[in-house]
Amino acid sequence: MSIQRSFFRRHRVLTALLMLILLLAAFLGYRMIGPYRSYYLDFVKTGDGTPTGLLMVGTAIRDITPNMDNYDVFNDADNDNTYKPKTGLLSYFRAFAGPDTYTDRNNNGKFDAVWLTGFNSDRPAKGVHDPIQVRAIAFRNNGLTVAMASLDAIGMFHDKVIDIRKRIDPKLKIDHVIVACVHNHETPDTMGIYSGPIPNPWDFDQPHMERVLNACKEAIEEAVKTMQPAEVYCTTYELNPEGFVRDSRKPIVIDTKLNCVRFVNPGTDETIATFLNWGNHPEALGGRNPYITADFCGYWRDGVEKGVSEPNGAPGLGGTCVYFQGAVGGLMTQLEMEVPHRDGVRKFKEDSFEKAEALGQNLAIKTVNALRGPDVWKNENPRLAVGAKTIYGPLRGVFRVAIVLGLIHPGIFWPCNARSEVDVVRIGEIEILTIPGELYPEIMDGGIESPKGADFYPLKPVEVPPLRKDLMQGKMRMLFGLANDEIGYIIPKSQWDSEPPHAYEPNGQYGEENSCGPEIAGIIHRESRGLLERLHEALRTSS
Questions:
Q1: pLDDT (tens digit per residue) in 489-540
Q2: Which residues contact 236 (CB under 8 A, 6 or more apart)?
């Protein structure tokens, strides 16, 4: 009898194990196929030929701050703001073990945390310093409607952007939707690669992700529904990088163009919205901050809307401020850099909220003064046009296995490609190009090198001519990074340098480990160039 019971016990264990393997295989198979398998874009639209008149503009804001009461309490025994468990499976491994515990509020035996992003994957949030948001802006003219959303988030994979587009009410007849992230390093994980010391799909906060997706949908729909006529005023301020941003990887190429657009009620000085674009990592709090925050982006937007107090402040412009991230590869940062306070006395070099506030308020002052300054020009004929192109790129690097298995960025296409997207938008003399990751500024404005010691030396620069400097048109040229996807660093092939001997530093430079590989920059440059040329030709022939 005991032999029979033992047989059936082993049989149940084997059956359960087999079922687990089959379920895992089914999950991985689904993720490898990916959602929206047939989704593909390839279009350029220049409108229906109706008189342009005034541009219609609308905005909306949605809060995406997690309610910390819904999560477990992190008991940080050594107060280092990283999770090193005292008990549980990870505690058996020296690399992860430590003195930390948590209060299991829902008694599910699992640490339910808000995992912060951008640095390490072992940083649970302890609270909220200031709210994070989705900010949307929508445009309509000459029979076209385009909506854009900017998130206080590290990034969002392409399948989630498609998901947002699918949720939007088709009755609104939006021709295209762009979703971009500011790449904030102090926000909840929206990519599934920062959730816990060993990130896995089961620790990813799906309920929070669902709230983010719905917030994007709602903000975009409200922005379209509340559109009103607007006059468009533009200026590009040439920013001295000192005290604002540094390039932490050679060659030193920095985006110095602070693009500022103000939409006002016709015939008045009443601001409807401001529309900003510039490139810098939001990481002024560094990698050990345990509090959710909008970082310098929040202080910047608040300063533009409400003003910055004296000394040396500036009055606010009102309206809704929407900021879109620029080219941040290379790597654009304020880490290890001194940021002055506007009082001309205090300076902040260490990671802190004071540093984030100083940087954001300094940017706000520059923005307000530029939009009130003598170099502002009116965008007289804000004709709208838009184009989009689905692209495919080969996979390489540290995330390749996870991507191939569909654990992140689901969907693999023959032979081993990931799907992404580039877009173009034209608003009169404003031209916008979207890039699905962290573009090195030298691809945008020039300065690509072919240094001795790089992996492909000697190789002439591939990604030429520079996208913004030579291939884009319009009096104002914006490049949105981390738009509709986040595929990591987009590095010029001739500067790719993962193997010794290294070109610039004896031990190499940071970047390649968070890239899809040396070919992706050339693919994005080629596809962006092709889409820009199609847009320009369509505008010429339809004018």
A1: 999 999 999 999 999 999 999 999 999 999 999 999 999 999 999 999 999 9
A2: 257, 258, 259, 260, 375, 476
What CA–CA distance (Å, rounded) separates 153 from 133?
A: 9
DSSP 146-166: EEEEEESSS---HHHHHHHHH
Instruction: State whether residue 301 is helix, strand or coil.
Output: helix
* pLDDT tens profile 239-265: 999 999 999 999 999 999 999 999 999
Measured between alpha carbons, how far is 132 from 142 in angstroms, rounded to an integer? 34
Q: What backbone phi and psi angles, to 5 degrees, belong to 542?
A: -100, -5
Tens digit of each residue's pLDDT (9 = 90 or more) over 317-369:
999 999 999 999 999 999 999 999 999 999 999 999 999 999 999 999 999 99
pTM for this one? 0.95
Q: Identify the CA nearest to 223 among candidates 285, 178, 284, 277.
A: 178
Contact 388, 42 (CB under 8 A): yes
The dihedral over CA atoms of 288, 194, 294, 363, expressed in degrees to the nearest 10, equals 80
Beta carbons within 8 Å of 139's beta carbon, 6+ residues apart:
55, 56, 57, 145, 146, 147, 227, 384, 427
Angle at alpha carbon of residue 266, lines to 260 and 272, rounded to 5°: 50
Give me the residue spans of the domains in the chain: 34-71+113-543
Instruction: Provide the 10 A C-beta neighbour count for residue 350.
Output: 10
Q: Are 225 and 58 in contact (CB under 8 A)?
A: yes
3-state DSSP assignment of residue 305:
helix
**Which residue is associated with the tokens 């990034």?**
155
Calculate the CA 77 to chain-centre distance: 33
Residue with tokens 């920059």: 521
What confidence tens digit (pLDDT) does each residue in 102-131 have? 999 999 999 999 999 999 999 999 999 999
Angle at 61 between CA 59 and CA 66, to 5 degrees: 165
Tell me the residue type at 64. I
